[in-house]
């Protein structure tokens, strides 16, 4: 209840946060919907599963190519401004798509091009909102603001996908009309927030130097450097888990609705993890207050140390989650349990990483966000390919065993190497916002 009151108080009393959070949430809902309806429309236009892959590739490849330039763009022209322009242009692209559908000239090459450019603009919005939210509140409210925003990220994932599928079933054009309305609405809501005060448009540095500054800043921050590594590796393993589950579901003839509910478990866990993140210090203190069994003393000392080691908890929880399908012989419920746990610690660690990102000097924050996002997204992009290769060579059972072994070995290495462990157990203390 205390956390809910904090959210309500922040929403009601801080207009800049309210409009920024609302605009971001509307944008995220549109993004989650369109991520589902692109492949559905591709199949409708071609009746070819191959084109589903190409359209999904076109909408996601900007995540690998554009995060770094997007960070430089946001730092140079301002978070709010970049996000407003990006949302308007996304709306325009989707309106063009709707006109093509209505007039009968839309073909698959048009859809691929629209998905590519809309995907790049969505990267702009993603980086901009991540850098914007911490600047809309006072320093002592940043954790609550980030927890509220991260909760909405996972909440929109849960709502957006089924909502997009539902509208597409009613009429193929319906979800895209809704998407265009959402993107324009997001831009309108964001325009009500106060203007950016840290725009760097007069910055004389080259674009190349701007992009390089993000790498340098992240590299010199030990926590962010290793947290990005941990996130990339765990994302790779989790994507492998999802591929194994989908393969098993197809082999067993599991209804698509049930499969969707199981995959949604990660979103449920993410909502819970993000929601409780401001209370993590109190929760971990309570855990520390209990006397552990002798054989767990060392583990507690390394991992549950006064709330400072969220990333280590994330690592070990993911290792434990990947073991569940092995223990339960890859039953469907085992994948749901694993994804629920992974989503929970993912929501918790995402808020922690974003708290550390909010401590980056204001004039370089978006560039560091871009580098961090690129690192974590690389695991999402590469994971399915690696898992597919393993499945073809080893089968699902051995693939799960390999994924768990890799995750467990990585967790042991990170926990055992003092430099890694110390970097990932940095305390996040309030501090003054660096001057722009």
Automatic annotation (TrEMBL):
Keyword RNA-binding assigned: no
Primary site of residence: membrane
Record bears the keyword Transmembrane helix: yes
TM ranges: 21-45, 51-68, 88-106, 166-190, 226-246, 258-276, 310-329, 335-353, 374-395, 401-420
Signal peptide as annotated in the record: none
Keyword entries, A-Z: Cell membrane, Membrane, Transmembrane, Transmembrane helix
Protein's UniProt name: MFS transporter
